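User: Need the bound-state model for N-acetyl naphthylalanine:
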Amino acid sequence: MRLQGAELRRIRMSLVAPFETSFGVQTERDILLVKVITSDGEGWGECVAGEEPTYSSEYVEGAQHVMLHHLLPRLVAQPELAATDVASLLHPVHGHWMAKAAIEMAVLDAELRAKGESFGRYFGAVRPMVDCGVSVGIHRSIPDLLATVGAYVEQGYRRIKLKIKPGWDVDPVRAVRERFPQIPLQVDANTAYTVSDGPHLARLDEFDLLLIEQPLPEEQVLAHAQLALVVRTPICLDESITSVQTASDAIELGACRIINVKPGRVGGYLEARRIHDLCTERGVPVWMGGMLETGLGRAANVAMAAMPNFTLPGDTSASDRYYHRDITEPFVLHDGRLKVPEGPGLGVTVDMDYLDSITSWREVVPADRLGAALR
Ligand code: NPQ
Ligand code: MG
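Assistant: Bound-state model below.
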């Protein structure tokens, strides 16, 4: 197929409740969507970059610029564009994984919709529904936290992940574990600790956690291996894993026993699939991360989470965990699981009237104008 143009769009969606992590508080999302227009039809991509470069160096305004001026122009001259070629065509541009991932997702959606094949089938999904966990932000008090966790347990979530940071770790984890002795429980520090915090983090060992996610800064892979000698709970990496190469090195070093797969962070669903396959070979379980996606990104994440080595529940929560109203048909929890969409491509339909009503900026760029950016 040939790329005929693209539509970039920014939408604003307020969160049902503020979401606090060790890197800041979110109350709404400013999301960049890309629709590719091809000779074979259209496809949607969602960019997971945040409004500010605080989770990673990428942020929505930068992603929009790099897509328009550096990434999309590299795809226009291709007479036979395929999703499997996108990463190599974009390779000359360094970094910008989330922007690249969104474009590859859109091309893959267009391609699969044209073929009548779902993302799930394409990825080799082995289950019709996936187990879901939920990520619980830092709260103002332990009673507040217990109320929130209680509501999620009531809704059927199969695993709880608590965000932690120095000063909000052992006490909240103990309180949740005492109230819910059986619930699968894990924690995520989003890089907030240092390797000298090892003995402190080892105090979490008694709470039977599935894992500790990304305790140390992203470039400190060796320090995670050192921490793993002090802490019994398995270490899981998120921010540090940026490619199949960094995943392979981290495993070899003993820096992690589990990996959080976020397609946006690693440059797309195809690189994410390679990480899944590598981890299968190395006996490392993986789970699907979450970036507060709309129904578009959520559809792709749920499809990928149905691959065989996604053996732990993901952050693939229901739409209403984050949003009162989604831009597609909502993902709804059934006994703690979400259905893998079965229709062509992403298998979800965008509510265009609602989308237009929350759009803050939109630009449609025909291929000839994208191509002009290269000259
Ligand atoms: C994580 N996600 O696993 C991330 C962190 C995160 C569900 O915990 C805007 C952009 C908001 C990126 C909120 C979950 C975000 C974001 C949280 C990433 O580390
Ligand atoms: Mg994380």
